[in-house]
Design goal:
Length: about 110
């Protein structure tokens, strides 16, 4: 897979809240690697919004595998991961694929 294909969106939404369990299943997905800054929260915001926490809890309850995947530092990103109870890969060096591979191994997920 070339880098351009790797970083080209397959789907764009305004907010992750548009990605409910039913829609994700329709897309054939059971695993999400989640960016933190400007995806789950605004850049300088110290906490996740309650509705984002509820979205994550709902997906976990529905059996989705979730992992944070951030270029951010370990201490800061692990704090978010701890808040929501999912694993995290920090300093992921996106858009390079190494962090994605680490997250996939961490979740024992299958790469498509
Ligand atoms: Mg981001």
């Amino acid at each position: 897979m070339g880098l351009i294909r790797l970083v080209t969106p397959h789907l764009c939404v305004d907010t992750v809240l548009d990605l409910g369990a039913g829609r994700l299943r329709d897309l054939g997905l059971d695993t999400l690697l989640l960016d933190v800054d400007c995806t789950l929260k605004r850049y300088r915001q110290p906490q996740l919004d309650a509705e984002i926490g509820a979205w994550i809890a709902g997906l976990r309850a529905a059996g989705f595998k979730l992992c944070l995947l951030s270029n951010g530092g370990r201490r800061r990103i692990r704090r978010f991961a701890g808040q929501i109870g999912i694993p995290a890969v920090c300093r992921a060096c996106k858009p390079l694929p190494f962090g994605c591979h680490r997250a996939i191994r961490k979740l024992q997920a299958v790469r498509q």
